[in-house]
Amino acid sequence: MKQQLLTICAILLGFTLTAQTTFLPLQNIDPSTGAEPYEIEAGDLDGDGDIDLVMATNTNPTNVDNTIRWYSNDGSGNFSIETDVSTSIRWVDGLEVADIDGQFGLDIIASSANQGKLVYFLSDGVGGFGLEVSIDATLTGGPGEVVAGDINGDGNTDIAVAVFGNKTAWYSGDGTGNFTAETDIESGTNNPFYMDMADYDGDGDLDVVVGFFTGQSIEVYYNQLIELGSVSWIKDTETVDSGDAFLLHVQFADVNNDGDMDIIKVDNGGAGGDVDWYDKEKDMPATINNVSNASIIDRPGEVIVEDIDGDTFNDVILTDFGTSDDAIIWFKGANNANPSSTPTTITDNNFQMQALALADFDGDSDLDIASIGNASETVFWLENELITLSVNAFETNAINMYPNPSKDYVSFNGIQDSANLTIYSVLGEQVLQASVNDNSPLNISNLASGVYVVKFEGNSVTQRLIKQ
């Protein structure tokens, strides 16, 4: 084990010594989205192995610019504007991509706050999407944030949504596109609107964090699937936080890189401007830590916690949704510590960027950034110039592993016959061994989210895998 750990440390050291995290100027994908693009998500929407994008507008209900639009990627970061997925759904406050029916590429899930509905669009396998399919058309309170995951442990994609006014609901999927409404995660009068889902308590099932408009509070709800054998929800006895000015985002993430999930929030209020994270044990008071305040960005939009500089530690990436700071910035993460208090600017413009999507858009194994200009009505991406691998890994006989990052499966090309690989955690622990070829995707769904090292037997190629 000690020798194995030394080997992995040497690999990771090679990553770190050659890392150079800079971003090229923004590359415009769509110069005219229609009024107020608001949501953006990334995923392999057409099943060709590279990462595409989907955008949705959030316009006044009377405005004609109501659009869900997707952009196909050729694998090198060259995006094409495709036929709109929908022009009838209005005021999209929740957008997600996930595999609903087990076919073709990822599917698109959206909520309409104005129309009170939750719907999906199936990838059709020929570079497009089917007609709108309703999951629930009775959400009169106004559905907001949408998340997808296997809530009941049956291997199928389930969907949860925060419904302003009355509840946070979840729907059980059967893997073929049918959904059944289940017992609400919570139901009350505090107006839930933002949420996230992850295994917060480390027991193997998916828990939920919800941000409420009334009281501006944040609460955690624990899934009892593992404990009881069926899904039910228990609220943490201690509120995470309350009294913000205008909650705009809540998320589970390991912000201080200690191996445990934390909670991070964005307060967009005029008297707020804070991005804080919370170190919290179950049923215990939370410890609040600040990442950014109004002196840095006074109207922050969205925060994402990912490793963008290849050092295996999560960083914090933040957008400006106001008119005075005009930036995407990032705070460098550290081992078992707060992120750096000094941000680095990625781009600076007057676009008012509410949403972010991070993925490897150009196939070079680092995380690039896509975003939307709410005021400029544009979609764009920024190429990460991080150099993460040794020279040998970029030789012409290199094995390509895609998509990367990935949630469930990775595929390969460049393998003749077959190859044996071993996947290691960043601590040097062997977590998976497999024999793979160009025609056999590798199932990584059982791996925890994080960064892994992939070593191919008899080959100088070593790659970094990001499991979402």
From TrEMBL:
SUPFAM superfamilies: Integrin alpha N-terminal domain. Keywords: Signal. Residues 1-19 form the signal peptide. The keyword GTP-binding does not apply. Residues 401-465 form the Secretion system C-terminal sorting domain. InterPro entries: FG-GAP, Integrin_alpha_N, Secre_tail. The keyword Signal applies. PANTHER family: PROPROTEIN CONVERTASE P (PTHR44103:SF1). This is T9SS type A sorting domain-containing protein. It comes from Microcosmobacter mediterraneus.
